[in-house]
Amino acid sequence: MIKKVTVLFTMAVGLILSVTYVAFGSPINASQPLQMSAIAIDPCDVDFNGSGEVDVGDIMFVANCWRSTDSGCNPYNLDGDDDIDIVDIMLVAAHWGEPCPGTVYGVALGEGNADRETKAKQAGAEWYRIIVSWDQIEPSRYAYNWSAYDNRISGLRQRGLYPLVEIRGAPSWALASGQPPCGLLNSTGLQAYSEFITAMVERSDGDGTGDMAGSYIVRYWEIGNEVDKKASEGWSHYGLCYGENPNEYAQLLARSWDAAHGADPEVQVVFGGMAYEKCCGFNSDPLDQVPGPDFFDNVLSYIKNNQRSGGKKYFDVMAIHAYGWFVSHYYNPPEVRTKYQIVRDKLSGCACGLGGVPLMNTEGGRQSNETIVWEHLSTPERQARYVPVLFVRSLAADLKAVFWYAMMDYGGHGYGLLTETNEPKPSYWAYKTLTDELDGYAYDAGRTESISWPSPVEGHVFSDGVGGEKWVVFIPPQYEGTAQETQLMSFPFSKIKVVDYDKFNSTYPDGDGDPSKTRVLCGSGSVNVTITVDPILVQPNPAEPCP
């Protein structure tokens, strides 16, 4: 951090001297000591101009409020001392050039391929979850090989994608006796793990010391994948299998947090995305179907009974996985928000200081393979329809990020937005349609709750902050094939624009999309539309004229 802050300090001081001279006719009082706050700032907190990264425009927002008492300048009082000064400037300058994922939209798997990464960005994704295997970087003690890691991070950042790094795969020399690669570490392995985390975060903090070429920054580190799996069930390829060792996983989180924050105080350590299902080799019981605590209960119990001092934590962000079929068959209501709420209730109810922890869904999606029985013969069209359903429900639940699994198909499962040869599937075009249509709009819970949606219609309102709205409306997937799969709805406007969830396709990949997928409807005070399982985006009072 020192190199970057020193350079930016010089720039900021020059800027402030100029502003102060103009405003007050005299330079800053040099007798006043410069105090840098220890407050942790997320780049998105200081991307005031919404450019997607911290730049000179953001510094100018703060500089223009120098010493101001105007209430409109309150957002720029970053250190909370009621005085907008050089410290606030420096808190912004310290993040110069850092990206801000301004949306929840992410994808997972398939990184390292320029075509896939470019298509992810073109679809509107900002986050990209990647897998980093410790054993591939440090196959023998201290023999670090960062080349593949550096190339993947630099490729993502050069294409405007923000990485979430999921760490897994211990080298054999670090494993306890008889443990699979996802299992417990020996004493040497525990120390080596801390050193590995420190080295990797230091390489990725952009401070000019020990950085990868280009000083690209990674802030989010996920400690394992589906960590509630049981090692005894043979799930060694899934990430970390600590389902039978919750205390040891809590200890690994603490070790990860210390090492990562020691290298970069502003990183976010993410609890390894739990599958959190009572099936398939997981030691999870979210609905308490069997008496007694499960993996997550036990991790939280350990944290409660072993509170850390000095501001230290176990993790900064909670992650779970939520796939379409599983949530529709294990939860009531049968959708992702039910699962999200169960996790949040556990966090807030454990009396361990985790009630306000942000939540991510680091794997969510639905297959397109018509032969997969557990997806009830899902088709490419059903997969595509589920894209807006997953994301708008997750936005309604205020998730920090949602990662569609996966970016591409592999092994015949059909989870991808792209085929194995990187050709866009209908789900890819649905993803792009949603991000394009909702660009500049934020979820409006108050408006959503104020509307009487006719049963079983589900609707969500997004607002642009200046009076504009878009409504995402659909019949929930579980009603497909029933008498309730269509419902007439009256929109209380004289004119609306209706956009289908799949306005983009291979023939119309850009611009306004397929003209047959957009229509302006007019009425006398209201417009009636038949709602189906195919989601639509409705814009009230559009600029386009009535036909």
List keywords for this structure.
3 domains, eight-stranded parallel beta sheet, 547 residues, Jelly Rolls, 30% helix, six-stranded antiparallel beta sheet, alpha/beta
Question: What features would you describe in this structure?
Answer:
- The protein is an alpha/beta fold and 547 residues long.
- It folds into 3 domains: 2-93, no CATH class; 105-439, TIM Barrel (Alpha-Beta Barrel), CATH 3.20.20; 445-540, Jelly Rolls (Sandwich).
- The protein is 30% helix and 16% strand.
- It has an 8-stranded parallel beta sheet.
- The protein is globular, with a radius of gyration of 25 Å.
- The relative contact order is 0.08.
- Residues 1-10 and 16-37 have low confidence and may be disordered.
Please sum up the structure shown:
The protein is an alpha/beta fold and 547 residues long. The chain is built from 14 helices and 16 strands.
CATH class descriptor name of the largest domain: Alpha Beta
> Fraction of residues in helices?
25-40%
Going across the biggest sheet, name each strand in turn.
Answer: 5-4-3-2-1-8-7-6
Specify the CATH architecture of the largest domain.
Alpha-Beta Barrel
The CATH homologous superfamily of the largest domain is named Glycosidases
List the helices and strands in order: HHHEHEHHEHEHEHEHHEHEHEHEEEEEEE
Count of alpha/pi helices: 14
| Envelope shape | globular
Average the pLDDT over all residues and give the rounded result: 89
* N/C terminus separation: 58 Å
Structural class: alpha/beta
What proportion strand? 15-25%
Counted beta strands: 16
CATH fold group of the largest domain = TIM Barrel
Can you summarize the main beta sheet?
8 strands, parallel
As residue ranges, the low-confidence spans are 1-10, 16-37
Radius of gyration computed on alpha carbons: 25 Å
Number of domains: 3
